[in-house]
Amino acid sequence: MSKGKIRVVIVNLLLLAVVAAAAAWGWKTLHPAVVVDANVQTTTVSTGSISASVSASGKVVSPGDIAVAPTVSGTLIAVNVAVGQHVTQGQVLAQVDPASQKQALEQAINGQTTAKNALLNAQTALDKLKKVKTADEIKQAELQMAQQKANVDSAQQTLDDQTVLLAANVATYQATVDAAKKSLDDTTANQADAAVGYQNSVDAAKTNLDASQTTFDNYSRIFSGLTLDFCNSLSVTSSNCTTYLGNYNSLQSSKNSYNNALLSQKTSLKKDAQTLAGLQVAYQNAITSQTTNLKKDAISLANYKKAVVTAKASYDLYVTQQAIANAPATQADLDAAQRAIDAAAAGIKSAQASYDTASRNLAGTTVKAPVEGDVASISASIGQNAPTATNKTSGVVSGFIVLTNVSALRVQASFSEADASKIVAGQATSYSFEAMPSVTAVGTVARVDILPTTTNNVVTYAVDMDITGGVPGLKPGMTTTATITTGNVPSALRVTAQAVTTRGTTSTVRLVKTIKGKQTFTTTPVVVGLKGDSFVEIQSGVKEGDIVALNAAAQSTISSNGFARGGVPAGIGAGGVTVGGGGGGRMTAVIDVRNVIKRYGVGDAAIFALNDVSLSIEQGEYVAIMGPSGSGKSTLMNIMGALDNVTAGEYFLDGIDVSSLGENELSIVRGRKIGFIFQSFNLVPRTSALANVELPLAYQGIKLKERRMRALKALDLVGLSDRVNHEPTELSGGQQQRAAVARALVTRPALLLADEPTGALDSKSTEDLLDLFDQINEAGRTVVVITHENDVAARAKRIIRMRDGKIIEDVLNAKKIA
Fold this sequence. Notes:
By secondary structure, this protein is an alpha+beta fold. It contains 15 helices and 36 strands. The strands form seven sheets. Strands 3-14-18-16-15-19 form a six-stranded antiparallel barrel.
């Protein structure tokens, strides 16, 4: 090798060494060791199992329909259900006029009775012909007849005796009533006389009191200087004082006598009233007892009469039976009697067949649901002839009533192409339902579509999933979140997902170490494997037992690269101010809803979308608002977003009374205070991502240079710095939603309001967007998400549930604030 070539090799080696050293220096410079904040939470790298799953929103569907119809033709007289109504198994759906079938059944019943009587008569005739009694049987029959006659006589005698006895009872009952009435009347008269005496005593006492008062008053006027205290103070007796004190004592005695007379009168009248009330009750009880006893006696007499009739009927039957039994018989008579029995038996079989047919036809006039389901169609109405046939041609079920079977429901959902590649038939599934938040179900994957569906440049594949067992209350059309288990590593080096940060193709953890007595963390690249629901598989970069920091703890300290912990650029915090740590000051209410009512219509037709709702959301909170369709969550979002006015109540947005603003003022508030994120992205087509993000700043009159800088920073924040010139059709669904987030953040609003932001996203894009929301909230931004998906709400720190226009639950998410 020549010296020139050797020099070239040496130079190249030196360059490689410099590049390697520069790369190492660059990584350490961009990711230096930082002293750990006392509030940073950590976790330990460990070995354990990891499960991965994919989720998507879907609908509950029915795999097939069932046609129901009457079994006999006739005119419809009742249709008890309507299209869309849910019915239970056995529920009556409709009724065909049963008149002709009832008539046929009555005829069949009469035919049965006639046939049974014919058989009984034929059998009785044969028994009579065959029977020859012995002397003992004749004697026994005579004794039995005598006993039957004695029963009749006994029953008649009992009836006669009871008739006399009950007649006597009538007089006794009346005598008791009369005595009670007389006692009541006599006491009433006596008490009237006594009342006069009581009043006379009171009047006499009053007269005496008036006389004593006059005597005392006259003497007091004559000797006006005399007083009770003066006379009592004299040591020497005075005749005038003696007379004065005598008159005074006489007056007091008269007052006591009068008060006693009044008290005695009141006590006596009360006692007399109680006595009279007791006698009135006794009189009413006597009348009630008389009525009850007369009724009981009448029933008893009717029973005694019935016993006589029954005994006579038994006696007459026995006499008839004995007369038949004692008649002589010939062989011809016996043969004829047997033929009559055979004919009667055949008649019973025929009558039974007619009865069974008539019963089935009558039952067939009532149309019942064979299974639980929903009414899909009704092909006839009252007054029309109900069709009896059902059929299924070309996959379409037809009949009088068609039910959607809900006893074997399944779930249909669309998954992204990345998620669909992991899904195969037979995988385990689980479901949660928006309409029933507390209900969960499990099942398996039944089928994955081969052909995709493309919407807004997003490719998805439909997946059918079975539901194992029944779920009470579940109906076709309900919204569900389906989760499919797609992977599992039973033993892997793992770390909780909150400890791993992934940007592009690079994943890092913040490795915590002790250097010179102080704990620091260093951003360390790692190679990840399976990303599970809770844990991430670490294939290299750390080892078991290493301690790493959780991302949720990095909230405020700004690192040397100008980014807040959690990946949010400095300067994109709430209100455009760099987010600082500490302080601990009281947060300001961004949303303050006070007794808000939103009503549509008037009078009896009024519908309350919001009914006296009060809600406060402080600066920096992350809140999820949930509820089924019609719960009021969308109306509340429109109120909070200044998109609709309240009927009554107040709404303050960041201290501004929004409920009092006009349309122009509302437009300004919306543009400056709220960043909107919608399910359908709402990006302007044929316009670059950068121009879309700049648009709200242009409306605010921000100069080109500043809005371009702020838009680029916002796009970098959401990971779209390499897509700034791409139009919406050139972006995936997840990238379009990130662009919408950047557009919402660029105005530095007080509130980020997201309406079902993950509804059009696959599971990976959903996870990425929710990670972005976490980072935005960690930077101090107030985030409110309207959603029906439990896994989306679970990322919030506070969850509010609504139903029927009211807030029914407002709780902190312990897992997020721990």
